[in-house]
């Protein structure tokens, strides 16, 4: 069977998505070529059954994939795309997961008739629990949109946006968000240690509390604020803790500043 998809870059995010696609059966490993210069990461992709290549120069001359997924760092995009211009202005759709880099950059290098999709995934895609947000240009056919949406659904939930400018905010919230949550686990663990708990107990209590609360927020169908109130006894311990966390300089303000810093960085990466 012919190659349907070329994945360029198989690091943290590329591999997370690739593994989910293959496990879902939505695409077969032998329909995928992975281009990755790092030998260890290339071997990891080969172990999934994909054909692998160290660089674009070794790709077959007659290659005509439906999709090329660009999963390299934003700083490398322009240099990398220069090796894929032969696929531009044609039927091959380019899907980029790079933060910041806008459609305009792709069109400048590949040609303005190239179908381009931007997707902002997040790392829980590695376990099929990702948030995948998609923006597609008018050049992208319904068939290509449907194929990409179906493929991405193997990695988690899929949402679409119609305004590319929102991609910076999306990146700052769901793209980077797992980093904030992992840090929240670290911070609660540190606080538990400071409160006198042994290291292992501190880590276990923090992780299970965040896991249990997140699953409950998803599965109960209740608003987080309602769930919070169920924990908060009148003049009790939670109220005392939340007085700090929900105070003027509390978590909402901190997260607003956090998201804004990430959004600004996304804009910088794209300029
Ligand atoms: N990590 C995350 O949680 C998320 C990442 N993203 C986006 O995904 C993209 C990749 O990020 P991430 O996976 O974390 O980064 P990684 O550095 O883990 O992966 C990128 C990979 O691309 C390889 N690479 C470099 N040049 C080429 C080339 N010419 N051809 C093929 N592969 C190449 C790199 O190899 P080498 O290291 O040898 O240079 C590396 O293995 C970024 O644009 C990022 O913005 C989006 C959402 C979430
Ligand atoms: O940190 C980054 O720039 C990438 C994009 C979103 C998550 N990781």
From TrEMBL:
Domain named Pyrroline-5-carboxylate reductase dimerisation: residues: 164-269
Enzyme category, top tier: oxidoreductase
Family to which the UniProt record says this protein belongs: Belongs to the pyrroline-5-carboxylate reductase family.
Keyword Amino-acid biosynthesis recorded: yes
Superkingdom assignment: Bacteria
Localization per record: Cytoplasm
InterPro entries attached to this UniProt entry: 6-PGluconate_DH-like_C_sf, NAD(P)-bd_dom_sf, P5C_Rdtase_cat_N, P5CR_dimer, Pyrroline-COOH_reductase
Main location: cytoplasm
Source species: Aquamicrobium segne
Protein's recorded name: Pyrroline-5-carboxylate reductase
Domain called Pyrroline-5-carboxylate reductase catalytic N-terminal: residue spans: 6-100
Pathway(s) where this gene product acts: Amino-acid biosynthesis; L-proline biosynthesis; L-proline from L-glutamate 5-semialdehyde: step 1/1
UniProt EC number: 1.5.1.2
Role according to the record: Catalyzes the reduction of 1-pyrroline-5-carboxylate (PCA) to L-proline.
Keywords: Amino-acid biosynthesis, Cytoplasm, NADP, Oxidoreductase, Proline biosynthesis
GO MF annotations, alphabetized: pyrroline-5-carboxylate reductase activity
Catalytic activity from the UniProt record: L-proline + NAD(+) = (S)-1-pyrroline-5-carboxylate + NADH + 2 H(+); L-proline + NADP(+) = (S)-1-pyrroline-5-carboxylate + NADPH + 2 H(+)
């Amino acid at each position: 069977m012919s190659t349907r998809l070329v994945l360029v870059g198989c690091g943290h995010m590329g591999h997370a998505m690739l593994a989910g696609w293959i496990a879902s059966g939505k695409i077969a490993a032998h329909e995928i070529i992975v281009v990755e210069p790092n030998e260890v990461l290339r071997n990891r992709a080969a172990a999934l059954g994909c054909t692998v290549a160290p660089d674009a120069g070794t790709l077959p001359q007659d290659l005509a994939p439906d999709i090329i997924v660009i999963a390299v760092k934003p700083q490398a995009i322009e240099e990398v795309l220069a090796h894929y211009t032969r696929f531009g202005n044609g039927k091959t759709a380019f899907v980029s997961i790079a933060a910041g880099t806008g459609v305009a950059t792709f069109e400048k290098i590949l040609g303005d008739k190239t179908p381009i999709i931007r997707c902002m995934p997040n790392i829980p895609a590695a376990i099929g629990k990702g948030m995948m947000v998609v923006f597609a240009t008018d050049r992208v056919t319904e068939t290509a949109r449907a194929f990409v949406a179906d493929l991405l659904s193997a990695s988690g939930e899929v949402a679409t946006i119609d305004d590319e400018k929102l991609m910076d905010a999306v990146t700052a919230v769901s793209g980077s968000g797992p980093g904030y949550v992992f840090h929240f686990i670290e911070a609660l663990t540190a606080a538990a240690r400071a409160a006198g708990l042994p290291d292992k107990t501190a880590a276990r209590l923090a992780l299970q509390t965040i896991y249990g609360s997140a699953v409950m927020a998803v599965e109960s169908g209740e608003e987080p604020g309602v769930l919070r109130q169920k924990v908060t006894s009148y003049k009790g311990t939670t109220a005392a803790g939340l007085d700090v966390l929900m105070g003027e300089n509390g978590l909402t303000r901190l997260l607003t500043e956090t998201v804004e810093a990430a959004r600004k960085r996304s804009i910088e990466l794209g300029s």
